Amino acid sequence: MAHTRNTRATARRRTGTSMRRTLRREAPSTIGLLADEQDFAAMRRYRTFTFDDHTVYLQQVEGLLKTLAAQGVHTTLALFDPEEYAEFCAESGVAADAPASRSRFTAEIAATGATVAYTGQPIDTLIPLLVSRAVRQATWEYATMLLADLGECADCGQDIGRAAFDRASHLLMRTLETAGPGTHHLVCSTPTENEQLLAVLHTERGTTGPALLDSGEGAEFVTVLAVGIALERHGGLVLRTSNPGTPDRVHGWRLTRGSLVPLTTGEVFSAYCTDADTGDPVSPESGVEYCAGFDIGADEPEEHR
Question: What is the dihedral of CA 118, 119, 122, 128, to 10 degrees?
Fold first, then answer.
């Protein structure tokens, strides 16, 4: 009888372990990543943060990602910012020098911040992708705040930010409609008092139907363009179109008083072949045609006519 009870107990423990493993595979994981050495060094002041070498730390993170993937666990990475972590701990009243607090903060930034899903990419590929997404989100949040703070027009009572967003959406759609089929890469640059906002959009358009847009990327792009419209800043837009068997075409426009004014061929060439930081000339790419901006057609969205 004792042997039978022990056998049953062992079977229950094995069943419980198996069930927990099954549940583990269905529970997603998030890793808060210290992407650069400066942030890593800032975390070393905490006694419970036991890593002392950033390169080794990244190797261990990559090893953990591979292990979780082998177990069938979906894992995402979020950018861990030490300054934001310290503020979070102070506001939440939790001890900063504790693994549980770091875990709680990681869950918080995963819910509200930029993340990247791990699908087998090397860590050297994941880091720039994660940083890029974090920059994009910060740009979008800042641009959204600028639009929200503009309030209503004193003359017509219209929400300035909302009207600028509608106008920007219209300009983007008209640009893509007029550009025709192909793979389109757009860059919008808008200056503000504090910084230069930059948004990038990738889209495909077939021979029929509208362009296919990622909703998040499209919203970010339109928001940055809307800031230039609302603040009446002299921003710019560049479109690069690729089609099989033909050279890439680059077109450009100047944003002036809420309209996209086509640049000349020379202006497009100059803008594309000049280093933005130094002003030095950059050699033109082979297989690329630098073209004047084209007229995108209707000037106003239908609902504003």
Answer: -50
Our measurement of the distance from residue 93's CA atom to the centroid of its chain's CA atoms, rounded to an integer in Å, reads: 30
Cβ neighbours, 10 Å, residue 5: 9
pLDDT band at residue 16 under the 50/70/90 scheme: low
Give pTM, 2 decimals. Answer: 0.75
State the pLDDT at residue 242.
93
Phi, psi of 130 (to 5 degrees): -65, -45
Distance CA 210, CA 178 (A): 11
